[in-house]
Amino acid sequence: MTHWRRRWQARRGDGRAIPDRLWARVVADLPCLQALDGNEQARLRDLCAAFLARKEFSGAHGLVVDDRMALLVAAQACLPLRHRGLSALAWYDDFVGIVLHPDEVVAPRRTRDEAGVVHEYDEALAGEAMQGGPIVLAWPRVLGSAPGATGIGHNLVIHEFAHAIDLHGKPLGQPADGCPLLPAGFLGLSAAAARQHWHTVLTEAHATHRQRVALHERFGAPPPWLDAYGAESLAEFFAVACEAYCVDRERLAEAHADLVALLDAFFARPTAPGDTR
Ligand SMILES: [Zn+2]
């Protein structure tokens, strides 16, 4: 395992600590950053500086993590937080380590089915988020879409960090369930009402998505734009919805307007003049 050290002094929350040339290169690499206006990019750059000051990157199997690689991860991890600002980095405070692998990771799995039979198998993973960290990412996938992916709303880094947001504040051992800790006063509701509202909207959108996936798989209907993997569970649905939201919010809104309104509130997206959604 090799460890990455910043060669520049990343002052807390000051994006100017990131060299201009490096920032420009990372923006050029990531289409989802190019759509941001100047203010949003400056806020994101500040977030990245603070993020990089808090996190430790390592490369597995001899992969050497350089500044560009670390910043590519930071920029995508911080993209959903850009409207909430530095305080939202607390969502990522439950872990410090980020491990980049040269390729997909083969993880041994062990499950017990309903009949009590234990199954052991290896699973190839592009990434993984676990309670307490680290976040594991396959480096080749940090820049690109999944092989064979039909939609363009994919982003592996946002997916894994969405799981981290989901896990934040959950008691040890409680799995991700698509229902993250909500900010105080969320949508002007009490904490209990906000949780209930979140669960209702997410569950309904998930049911709609499952139905669309089933219609595609069983009856040859066109595939839904949103990643079919989201049908697996509420936790995966939340993660693929966050990916799609950050990569192409308008397209997601066509498929799941209520869900987008929920994510707008969660990520504190300001309402644009004339914005009716
Ligand atoms: Zn996932």
From TrEMBL:
Pfam families: Peptidase_M90. Coiled coil: none annotated. GO terms for molecular function: aminopeptidase activity; metallopeptidase activity. GO terms for cellular component: cytosol. It comes from the Bacteria. This is Protein MtfA.
